[in-house]
């Protein structure tokens, strides 16, 4: 199971290597008709049962160094061959920088944390926020309650649409001068205890649409019939950002992505080594299958 196709919602990541195993004392060599739990199929089960009879996630967590999974995306394009990366057993420092700031999960079995504040540069959103932020596997954009998004859109200079299904549009000059637009800072956790934050740069929250409109990448919860108790973060939120969940501690951490050109350079330098590693791992897995077949 060192290479496979993986589907997250409507997003298909074709033939990606998402785990390399050095030691596999209890690791099954194949999974068939096994359950997947929660968001991405990567939420911790209620009980860590026998890894040889459990889901792929439980089996992987039983042999990696740390019960951690980290996810990041490079783009939201379905046609790309390298859309994102899952890292099992560690945080991802290839694509993201700085320490991961962890806060308690707000709900069991979900990638959900309490949200404390939303700021546009140094100005806090002056409205009561929904209590939680959830990362959703089938969501494409970023979603929130209409009243809260309307306030955010006004602070960014966007027009509030009459129809809840329409995008928040900006003047074309905003996209022409995207580097001059403000940053959005989201704070999570519990006030007075552990807190974390993540920053949305203009290229993370706005774009020029295929028909040339300058628009925000936020939409109202009503569009997808999401619960207004949440700000729902989809694939767009994960682009150039790492989100990690520590299953044993029940905590979620965030780290900012490296600059795109730096990441691309690192990827090119490691491609040859990866090809060699994949062949070696394939041979190890075949050896395990043979030993299991003959009863060793």
Automatic annotation (TrEMBL):
GO BP annotation list: proteolysis
A molecular function GO annotation: aspartic-type endopeptidase activity
InterPro entries linked to this entry: Aspartic_peptidase_A1, Pepsin-like_dom, PEPTIDASE_A1, Peptidase_aspartic_dom_sf
Domain named Peptidase A1: residues: 1-255
Alphabetical list of Pfam families matching this protein: Asp
Domain of life, per lineage: Eukaryota
Homology family: Belongs to the peptidase A1 family.
Protein name (database record): Peptidase A1 domain-containing protein
Source organism per UniProt: Meloidogyne enterolobii
